[in-house]
UniProtKB/TrEMBL annotation, chains A, B:
UniProt xrefs under Pfam families: GntR, UTRA
Residues in coiled coil: none
Keyword annotations from UniProtKB, A to Z: DNA-binding, Transcription, Transcription regulation
SMART domains in alphabetical order: HTH_GNTR, UTRA
Lineage: superkingdom: Bacteria
Family matches, as PROSITE patterns: HTH_GNTR
KW Transcription (keyword) present: yes
Domain HTH gntR-type: 12-80
Keyword Membrane found: no
Protein name as catalogued: Putative HTH-type transcriptional regulator YurK
CDD domains linked: WHTH_GntR (cd07377)
Organism whose genome encodes this protein: Usitatibacter palustris
A single BP term in Gene Ontology: negative regulation of DNA-templated transcription
Length: 245, 245
DNA sequence: GAGTGGTCTAGACCACCCC
DNA sequence: GGGTGGTCTAGACCACTCT
């Protein structure tokens, strides 16, 4: 049965509409990270369109790493908890090219009132309760990145050093597993600065040494900013890597 | 007429084969940057496959920014010379968010024998003749990036300061226009370093100031490395920006 | 073998661009 | 109006995974 594009005010292709419906189901938690979504034929039937149209919608979501296709098995909700995607947003890597997985050491978790850059980036009113997490990331016991992570306190209630420390995996895996909050994309700005006393101490470099300052805003569904972080990063033996295309 | 996938030893989808054929035509210069390639129906006829299969092959090349689709007009070979793509690989941008186009000031163009990092990155034997270009990139007359660019001398014969200076546009636009050499993608590694005397002078900062060191390898068709460059970059008012997804 | 995603086709029609 | 890319369908068959 040929489904006509219904009520298209300024023309939205059908597959776009399907993509939006799928996204809504994801936001609503109908399918959770790691789970399979219904088969293409099932979805085609549900939305009363052809399988090819569902396919195109899924193609788009897969290209954004929101869904993952696995031939012969099904289509799954992407997850930061899967080993291959664990540190998908981490751009700081050893120059050697080795695939090392970093260790995390949490220094501090505290509450504070929103202010400054973080609040602005997250669209929070000044004074909103926030959570600030300070963390050291190590590769083979060498400290490489000193992170300050800021979120609205309401986003992640009950986070403590102990809980974070006992969790194995990335922050995004943590948010996902504990709060059902999935990060879709992020923006970064990198600058060169001098290490201050605290950073120098933590990163085991001389005070005043040149280090990278990596500011990041991470977004969940609907381009909603959720996490701001500033990473201070040593670049001897490590560098910030990027693919341009 | 249904075309069967011919002689597929370890199964290559038809559209992959078409993609390879299209790429070969691009490498051979059958269609030049900025030009239109034949219509989908023409190509379908030429390769004796359906239009949908050609379409999928073109989709892939378009997603890699090798081709550009324009509805109602045709499909075109992407070009670094087009305004929108002029500085596609430039990640250093003003914090203000303004869309400024940089000016180039060429300091030196010299010949040298391949050695060190550049030679290794480009896969050149030590001693191969190379060209080294030193350039300052300015935004609104403020010096921001000091580049050292290395290529095999055979790649770009006859390049001089005068010729580069008189050319309006990016290096990649230059290679493309003058030598028919199109850059497809690049890899970058960013580190924080202290400005040496020369860099400090050129970038108008104090000697020893923290600056970014951005190493890049740029590739043409077939992942062939063609250009190595090191950009030393001031990050006051500017930063290296990146999208993660 | 049953179920899933992946490929390919053929044909219809739509949106956009330019003459 | 004629050409181009863009959408959508319906159906056939292939490749992969698991049972």
């Amino acid at each position: 049965m040929p489904a006509k594009p219904v009520a298209t005010p300024s023309f939205r292709p059908l597959y776009e509409q399907i993509r939006i419906l799928l996204t809504q189901s994801l936001v609503a938690g109908e399918w959770k990270p790691g789970e399979a979504i219904p088969s293409e034929t099932d979805l085609a039937e549900r939305f009363r369109v052809s399988q090819g149209t569902v396919r195109k919608a899924i193609d788009e979501l897969a290209s954004e790493h929101i869904l993952v296709r696995r031939q012969g098995k099904g289509t799954f909700v992407a997850s930061h908890s899967e080993p291959a995607y664990q540190y998908r947003f981490l751009r700081v890597l050893p120059d050697s090219g080795e695939k090392l997985t970093p260790q995390n050491r949490f220094l501090e978790v505290k509450k504070a009132r929103a202010s400054g850059e973080a609040a602005k980036a997250l669209g929070l009113k000044a004074g909103t309760p926030t959570l600030i997490i300070k963390r050291l990331m190590l590769f083979q016991s060498k400290p490489v990145v000193l992170d300050e992570i800021v979120l609205a306190a309401s986003t992640c209630p009950g986070a403590t050093v102990a809980r974070l420390e006992s969790f194995r995996g990335s922050m995004y895996s943590f948010y996902e597993t504990v709060y059902g909050l999935r990060m879709i994309r992020a923006e970064e700005r990198v600058r060169a600065i001098e290490a201050d006393t605290f950073a120098a101490e933590q990163l085991a470099v001389a005070r005043g040494s040149p280090i990278l300052c990596v500011d990041r805003i991470a977004y969940t569904y609907g381009d909603k900013p959720v996490e701001w972080r500033r990473g201070l990063c040593v670049t001897s033996g490590f560098s910030y890597t990027n693919e341009l295309s």
